Amino acid sequence: MVANPYAAYQNNAVTTANPQELTLMLYDGALKFMRLANLAIDQGNPDLKNINIQKTQAIFQELRLTLNKDIAISANLDSLYDYMWRRLVDANVKNDTTILDEVLDFTTELRDTWKEAMKLAKQS
Known about the structure:
Mean pLDDT: 92
Order of helices and strands: HHHHH
């Protein structure tokens, strides 16, 4: 018997996903953790805020590592991921939901664009 069926499902989803789906999962994870960090700030829980911001930062580091440096847009994405990572440091230090919302908006736009690109690629 599986101890945690949801964990098994998540593990299977990650191990069977293609690179494009993994990128989408990373964006979704970043959005989830930023929302949790915002909630933690609102609830006055600095430990939970810190954990979730650090998880989001780790996702941006992973996104930076997976960029194909041979593609021109990668330099722009690298700069944007770096900017958002640094803004998360500011949000963490200042307990600032406005900064988190800024990064959340950028990430939502990136995720939506990525999702649309995946859809268009499937149609081709």
